[in-house]
Design brief:
By secondary structure, the protein is of the alpha/beta class. The chain has a domain at 10-137 and 160-201 and 248-258: Vaccinia Virus protein VP39 (Rossmann fold, 3-Layer(aba) Sandwich), CATH 3.40.50.150. The chain has ten helices and seven strands. The chain has helices spanning 10-30, 50-57, 69-73, 112-122, 141-153, 160-169, 176-186, 205-213, 219-223, 227-241, and strands at 40-44, 61-66, 82-84, 99-103, 128-134, 189-197, 251-258. A seven-stranded mixed β-sheet has the order 3-2-1-4-5-7-6, sandwiched between helices. Helix 4 (112-122) links the parallel strand 4 and strand 5 (128-134). The longest helix has 21 residues, at 10-30. The mean pLDDT is 96. The structure holds S-adenosylmethionine. Residues 1, 6, 21, 25, 45-47, 50-51, 66-68, 71, 86-88, 103-105, 108-109 line the site of S-adenosylmethionine. Residues 42-130 form the Methyltransferase type domain. It holds the Pfam family Methyltransf_11. Keywords: Methyltransferase, Transferase.
């Protein structure tokens, strides 16, 4: 991974995107097949630490790894131990952690099976591997698309990596069969893969807008806007969404498995 897609994303992620990804991280940790209290758990692709927070609440001892030093730097004083590193070559020894969590990061790699093998390598036999990726469903997107239209009208063009993420990488795990095939090829055991529409408690237009404008693809562009223009963009996005706002329920693929 040569480009840090998340170099400018930490503030928006932690204060906006977290409205959706925080509940999703908590739901993933809650899916663990055994109690996590006292266990050393890898938070792979930790970002600003949403899964680490859920792991700590469960009594676990997380260790965070992410390729973006900027994401790991967010609130670092209150975060668990962390290291910059890529999912493709985790800076951990074999069997170095008891369990591993990968919340919405396997969908950022070109070879998810290799990344799953790497999670299995660093996790002790019997340990859990928990992961989420976005499901390919589109019905939840029609409201969100209104925000994207406002941003596009204001001159935003998504970076090339975002097109690669959404059209090439995410579809590699975009349904139950695809996730299942990748996990089976990685040699994990006791595999349970589900697709569900997640209730994340986002019901107000303001929260949906903060989530969407907090995502990484738009972060650098937003940060370069004058404060007044940024505020106006948010107002226009809320106005575009409010008339059709419904609870935001993204479809999510969840993996629960064990290292044999
Ligand atoms: C969608 S965010 C998810 C962050 C966090 N897990 C959460 O649920 O809020 C993806 C994170 O994975 C990191 N990431 C992307 N590709 C990675 C890779 N190949 N190796 C390690 N981290 C990666 C990004 O820097 C970013 O922080």
């Amino acid at each position: 991974m040569t480009v840090d897609r998340y170099a400018h994303a930490a503030p928006g992620w932690a204060t906006g995107a977290a409205r959706v990804y925080g509940p999703l991280a908590a739901q993933l940790v809650a899916a663990a097949p055994h109690p996590l209290a006292g266990r050393r758990v890898l938070d792979a692709g930790a970002g600003t630490g949403l899964a680490s927070t859920a792991l700590r609440a469960a009594g676990a001892r997380p260790v965070a790894i992410d390729y973006s030093p900027a994401m790991l730097a967010w609130d670092a004083a209150h975060r668990p131990p962390s290291a910059a590193g890529a999912l493709e070559a985790l800076p951990l020894r074999d069997d170095g952690v008891d369990d591993a969590v990968a919340a919405f990061v396997l969908n950022h790699v070109d070879d998810p099976t290799a990344a799953l093998r790497e999670l299995a390598r660093v996790t002790r036999p019997g340990g859990a591997v928990l992961a989420t990726s976005p499901a390919a469903g589109t019905t939840h997107r029609s409201v969100r698309d209104r925000i994207d239209a406002v941003v596009a009208d204001a001159g935003f063009t998504p970076p090339d990596w975002y097109a690669h993420l959404t059209t090439v990488q995410a579809p590699l795990l975009g349904d139950v069969t695809a996730m299942r095939d990748a996990v089976d090829a990685a040699g994990l055991a006791d595999v349970v893969v589900t697709e569900r529409v997640a209730d994340v408690g986002v019901e107000r237009a303001e929260d949906l807008v903060d989530y969407r404008l907090g995502q990484a693809h738009v972060a650098a562009w937003l940060a370069a806007l004058p404060e007044g223009e940024r505020a106006e963009l948010r107002r226009a996005s809320v106005a575009a969404v409010a008339p059709v706002m419904a609870p935001y329920r993204p479809p999510v693929i969840t993996l629960v498995a064990r290292v044999p």
